[in-house]
Design brief:
The chain is an alpha/beta fold. 25% of the residues lie in helices and 26% in strands. The strands form eight sheets. It has a five-stranded parallel sheet, covered by helices on one side. It has a four-stranded parallel sheet with strand order 13-12-11-17, with helices on one face. Strands 22, 23, 24 and 25 form a four-stranded antiparallel sheet that branches. The two termini are 13 Å apart. 51% of the residues are buried. The N terminus is likely disordered. Bound molecules: flavin-adenine dinucleotide (FAD). The site of flavin-adenine dinucleotide (FAD) has 36 residues, from helix 2, strand 2, helix 3, helix 8 and strand 22.
């Protein structure tokens, strides 16, 4: 597990990649002034960052309680490397101790089971009730497994591994147990889903593992979308160069049901029988987001005011990360959740001080994908708040794509991961 020491060792590397550009306005509160209590639910990329920055930027003026159901943070970014056998679970697991010791965040390991947004109270499964001045929700996504016949309740046999943790271990073990000459079939749901390039990266790393250890095997990618959702040309190039005989991509292939006993995926026009079946179900905002009584967009995602991340129809509650309905062109990524958190923390501090929030926040995204254990590609973008349209818009000409997969970016990708974990948790 990463500790504070190893964080600090890497903290100098590519720090700019995770530094916020969201606060040209000073978010720092007047030293020592008590501003109120903020409860944060969810200690992932969004929630942990918000908890830390609320404490740091208020100079201790905001009391912060972070409610997280898991004992440790386990990173989805880099979890495909665990599935491919290049990393271990401890390499992607980080303690919450830094938030407590270094920043004075109160961390409660529990599940939030109810929210009364009128009374400003949260109830937890351990029987506790917390009162707040402002609430931040960063619960990530939940899976709509019931949309795929036969899947619900069988995720231990047909894992998604789209929340890193136990599921990552199950999928890795299934891959290790797969016979040479077997079939690994994976299904990608219709966008929007968490991490647009993530499934294609997974296909690469699984194919890479099979090529080395079980070369007679095959990877079949069943995509409900009509094409690759991110870094298309770069993934296609990698597949043609390295995985031509092992990986088969079948777009426009929405999964209807699964047969758990035979590990068969049933689509409209075909069925695929696999030795390992990895189904990423369609997704929605984590259940706790549904507890605030907000009118969810498409019944799935929370509608937020991007200037502050406050929920449009529920004052005092901020939703960040994957659970929010994104601004145009904004990906559901850990990097973006980290940036939302900084917009939220800065706005909350100013609102608690009775001041206007920064009128011109800027956020950015970078996302790295391994096309094999040594070569990586990235996509990046910058998003500026547009006052007229009252949302973030992509800055023309910002960001870009790797020209080709390369080894230097593999180093940068690992530094990015260590730095963003440090930015959230150290
Ligand atoms: C395989 C894969 C690879 C990825 N690679 C990248 C990448 O390279 N770069 C990148 O930027 N992003 C990547 N992502 C996406 C990234 O993981 C998500 O976008 C990010 O985790 C979203 O942050 P979040 O805070 O919204 O949710 P999360 O990080 O999922 O955090 C939500 C937290 O809330 C907790 N929680 C939920 N409900 C409750 C409750 N009721 N009570 C208490 N706790 C609760 C959960 O336990 C969880 O810890 C990847 C994702 C996957 C699956």
């Amino acid at each position: 597990m990463m500790n504070r020491r190893s964080f600090l060792k890497t903290a100098g590397l590519s720090a700019a990649a995770t530094a916020t550009v969201a606060t040209p306005f000073s978010a720092m509160a007047e030293s020592g002034k008590k501003l109120g209590h903020v409860v944060v639910i969810g200690g992932g990329f969004g929630g942990a960052t918000a908890a830390k920055y609320l404490r740091m930027w208020s100079d201790g003026g905001v009391d912060v309680t972070l409610v997280e159901r898991n004992p440790h943070f386990v990173s989805c970014p880099m979890s495909n490397l665990v599935i491919g056998g290049e990393k271990q679970m401890e390499d992607i697991t980080v303690s919450y101790d830094g938030l407590v010791k270094n920043h004075g965040v109160k961390v409660i390991q529990a599940s939030a089971t109810g929210i009364d947004a009128g009374a400003k109270k949260v109830t937890l499964d351990n029987g506790e009730t917390l009162s707040y001045d402002r609430l931040v929700l960063s619960p990530g996504i939940d899976f709509m497994s019931s949309k795929i016949g036969g899947l619900e309740g069988n995720e231990d046999k047909i894992p998604h591994a789209w929340k890193a943790g136990e599921q990552t271990v199950i999928l890795r073990k299934q891959l290790e147990d797969m016979p040479d000459g077997g079939v690994f079939a994976m299904h990608i749901p219709k966008a929007p889903y968490r991490c647009p390039p993530g499934p294609y990266e997974r296909a690469c790393l699984v194919a890479s593992y099979l090529k080395q250890h079980k070369p007679k095997s095959k990877v079949i990618v069943l995509d409900a979308n009509e094409d690759i959702q991110s870094k298309k040309a770069l993934f296609r190039k990698a597949w043609e160069t390295h995985y031509k005989d092992i990986l088969e991509y079948r777009p426009n292939n929405a999964l209807l049901e699964v047969d758990v006993a035979t590990k068969t995926a049933v689509m409209d026009f075909e069925s695929v029988k696999a030795d390992v079946l990895n189904v990423i179900p369609p997704q929605r905002a984590g259940a706790v987001a549904g507890m605030i009584g907000s009118d969810l967009i498409n019944g799935l995602w929370v509608n937020v005011d991007w200037l502050t991340t406050e929920v449009k129809d529920v004052p005092g509650v901020h939703v960040i990360g994957d659970a929010a309905f994104p601004a145009p062109g904004m990906p559901k990524s850990g990097h973006m959740a980290n940036q939302h958190a900084k917009v939220a923390a800065a706005a909350i501090i100013r609102l608690l001080e009775g001041k206007d929030p920064n009128p011109t926040p800027v956020v950015m995204n970078t996302c790295y994908s391994f096309v094999d254990p040594k070569n990586v590609v990235h996509v990046a973008s910058v998003h500026q708040f547009n006052a007229e349209k009252h949302t973030f818009l992509k800055v023309d000409g910002s960001g870009g794509l790797s020209p080709a997969a390369n080894q230097l970016e593999a180093k940068t990708a690992m530094s990015w991961a260590k730095n963003i974990w440090a930015d959230m948790l150290a």
